[in-house]
Specification:
- The protein has 291 residues and is α/β, with parallel strands linked by helices.
- Helix 1 packs across helix 3 and helix 4 packs across helix 8.
- The longest helix is centred in the first third of the chain and has 13 residues.
- The protein starts with 21 loop residues before the first helix and ends with a helix.
- The relative contact order is 0.19.
Amino acid sequence: MTADHDQPPERFQPGPATAAPPAAAEAAGRLLAAGLGRSGFPEARPRLGVILGTGLGGLIERLEGEQSVPGNQLGWLPRATALGHAGRVAWGHCDGRCVVMLQGRVHRYEGHPAELLTRGVELLAAVGVDRLLVTNAAGGIANGLTVGEIVVLEDHVDLVRGRWLAAAPTRQGSPTCYDEALSRAAVIAAGRAGASCRRGIYAYMLGPSYETRAEYRMLRRFGVDVVGMSTVPEVVLARHRGMQVVAASVVTNIARPDRAMDDAATDGEEVCRAAATAADGIWAIIRQLLR
């Protein structure tokens, strides 16, 4: 249900098709036909895109006037199969501003080529999103981390090294991927919502197996704080598309390099439950990024 406003609602029109591949622009057109950009709110243009990681899909229910479609019906997004990734595209309003959410993603370990991992970002670019929040569930590497804690990324270590920018020149520089001012504001917002939150470094691993104890020790020596199996391809492409990017990991298990990992701590359903405990903090970050 939407609120009444004095101003007439804006009819959203996407940006130029050259901002994304033609097929992504066509998928964006299907989203428009499904209702994106039509609402009783003055601002219908999606200001913010959010990629919801494992266990965070329930955040779409907090959107006012929420609508969604299965992502694979758009003819562009691959079908998500990982536990906790429903594969839906949802949109609605938060604090009167439009948000588009991808409820899940696909991963390299599912057998997808690099190009498919970033199609969600291409879709968001095609509908005009210029600010992106990428979330994930991650293992805690740094000492002192606790399950449910949020780590807002300041940098990453890419241990998969795919060619995430297939259309770009082979040799690239190393830009700062994460918006510093927005990331600092995100940490403050999550803390005010009662969440434990800090900055940190993320390591991207292929998966699907969890890391060995030797790998945990290596990552800790690298200065890594959290480790996961996603996010980096999306972040790299989003920056290439000119978006401001913030990324947040939810710690769902703690690495213990000197003893065997508890299987229960890395069970998929337990990971989903652990990630869901950070929902209030992630929602606070979303609200902050809409300001």
